[in-house]
Structures are given as C-alpha cells and as structure tokens.
Design goal:
The protein has 3 helices and 7 strands. By secondary structure, it is α+β, with helices and mostly antiparallel strands. The chain has a domain of about 110 residues: START domain (Alpha-D-Glucose-1,6-Bisphosphate, Chain A, domain 4, 2-Layer Sandwich). Helix 1 crosses helix 2.
C-alpha cells in the first residue's frame, strides 16, 4: 500500500525570493508556524543537516518539534523531516496523538507563476508503521485547515514585506 499523502498548492502574489524568506528566516517562520499559539524558535539552521527546534506554548503546556533540513535549494525547494520531540529535542511519539507517525517528510517547492509564486507542500509519514500511516490517512480531511491558516499568515507577511 502506498504511503498516504497530503498535498496543497497555494498561490502568493509575491516574488519567489520573498516566499522563500518566509520559510528560511526564523523571525518570519516564528510568526506563521503554529498560528494561534505562542511559538518560540530555539534553533534555526536552514541548511542540509541543520536543525529547526521550536516550542509551541498553549497555556501551561508546551509541544516541541525537532525538524531536520534534508535539502535546501534556494529559492526553489526545502525538504525536512519534522518530528515531535521532548524538551531535550529527542524524537518522541506525539503527546497529543499517540498513533501519529513520529516523523513526517515535508517537501516545499516554490515556482514562479502568474506574476507571483506557487507553493506546493507535500507531507507524508516517514518510515511509519502501518498503524501510524492509517492514523495519518484518517486525519487527511482535517489537515487543510491547519496548513491553510499558516499560509494565510504568510500572505499577510508577504503584503508587509512588499510595503
């Protein structure tokens, strides 16, 4: 059985280099990643082998993620392994959804289109068990909303950057 896949494309009325900055500059990423929660980036090195470590605070509780950049091809492509982590940045099962795949392969591709930029996001379980892949597949209908909320914030940031 092929791995389930979440895919979305979003058009931004902004040059590709500005959209790239929204994914590769920590101060901009911190604004859009995890909309609606307080996000603190503890490390951010967008280079192959570099790490992005962040904490999302929801009241008294924090969720941690450890993301490893696999490919960084400016300004066209990012490939990352995204994982839930503990407060020491070790990969752990999701504290919110125990059957969720511990590591997700995230691919972001940017392309000039129609006077702006098309962003394509592909999100798949990485080395997941059958049970974890099923949990991911069952969640597919709800994924658009979370990612779309972040993309809406990116659109706001891009309007600000363009003055």
């Amino acid at each position: 059985m092929p791995e389930p896949k979440f895919e979305m494309t979003r058009h931004f009325d902004a040059p590709q280099d500005l959209v790239w900055r929204c994914w590769t500059e920590a101060d901009l990423v911190q604004r859009w990643y995890g909309p609606g929660v307080e996000t603190e980036i503890h490390a951010f090195e967008p280079r192959p082998g570099g790490l992005w470590k962040h904490e999302m605070r929801m009241g008294e509780r924090s969720l941690y993620q450890r993301i490893e950049f696999i490919e960084v091809e400016a300004p066209d492509r990012l490939v990352m392994l995204m994982a839930s982590a503990d407060d020491r940045w070790a990969v752990t099962p999701s504290p919110v959804m125990p059957l969720w795949p511990p590591v997700m392969l995230t691919q972001v591709t940017l392309a000039e289109a129609g006077g702006g930029t098309d962003l394509t996001l592909i999100w798949t379980p990485h080395e997941a068990s059958a049970q974890e892949s099923i949990a991911f597949a069952e969640a597919l209908p709800q994924m658009e909303g979370g990612w779309a909320a972040g993309m809406d914030v990116i659109a706001e940031i891009l309007r600000e950057l363009q003055g």
